[in-house]
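Retry 2 of 3 after timeout on previous attempt. Resubmitting structure tokens to design endpoint.
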């Protein structure tokens, strides 16, 4: 498939999404990312991960034109897989730093909020959970991640409006932790990743579960409870018409 590449420098692994110009996520891409994370989790030589995208996008989010071709049972299967992916990443036993090199939209934003620390470039790139703008509900568990990052009131603003936030605006909300110039992204992210790599792994894993474990369990419960509702809205006449208008260039 080769939608995900991995490189390791000292004890830091960089995992790069590399699917087309916008790194849109389809089912094989999600499966490959999950398998890559699982392999690195068991690698004793890797202490910290960096998750980033190739080119000018971190990720456009889901490959909607591809999913428009899915029947409802097939899309439900993907929804289960993607929810499992972001929950796994949210509770990942090793530190994960998101290097947001470009636009970070919808499903891409979900992957970013699942990480432990987010560094985003300034300038034109935007970050957004914009599902409401094309008539879709959110992946249920992603709401817990959003609230975890920005608090309940800011989560409402992000989710209800579908607004596109600059790095500076996202930083004020707590959606990203640091803003940097594009030329400095690599060095800034490496510095954060190296800081995490110095921490004792079992202690970090224990503390992470103490901090995030209850949220992770709520995510699983909410995904089980509300995923059919989310899928039914996706296939409603009003939303389906809007989904069919979405194009991915490149």
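Retry 2 succeeded. Sequence:
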């Amino acid at each position: 498939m080769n939608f995900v590449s991995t490189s390791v420098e000292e004890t830091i692994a960089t995992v790069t999404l590399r699917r087309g110009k916008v790194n849109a996520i389809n089912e094989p891409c999600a499966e490959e990312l999950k398998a890559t994370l699982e392999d690195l989790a068991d690698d004793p030589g890797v202490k910290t991960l960096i998750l980033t995208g190739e080119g000018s996008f971190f990720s456009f989010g889901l490959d909607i034109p591809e999913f428009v071709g899915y029947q409802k049972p097939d899309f439900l299967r993907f929804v289960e897989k993607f929810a499992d992916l972001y929950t796994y990443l949210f509770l990942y036993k090793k530190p994960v730093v998101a290097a947001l090199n470009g636009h970070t939209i919808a499903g891409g934003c979900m992957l970013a909020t699942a990480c432990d620390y987010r560094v985003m470039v300034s300038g034109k790139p935007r970050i957004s959970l914009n599902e409401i703008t094309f008539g879709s509900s959110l992946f249920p568990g992603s709401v817990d991640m959003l609230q975890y990052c920005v608090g309940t009131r800011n989560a409402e603003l992000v989710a209800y409006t579908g607004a596109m936030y600059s790095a500076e605006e996202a930083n004020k909300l707590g959606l990203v932790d640091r803003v940097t110039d594009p030329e400095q992204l690599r060095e800034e992210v490496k510095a954060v990743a190296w800081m995490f790599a110095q921490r004792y792994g079992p202690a970090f894993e224990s503390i992470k579960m103490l901090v995030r474990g209850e949220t992770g369990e709520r995510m699983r419960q909410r995904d089980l409870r509300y995923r059919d509702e989310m899928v039914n809205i996706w296939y409603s006449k009003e939303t389906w018409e809007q989904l069919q208008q979405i194009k991915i260039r490149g």
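Attempt log closed. The mean pLDDT is 96.
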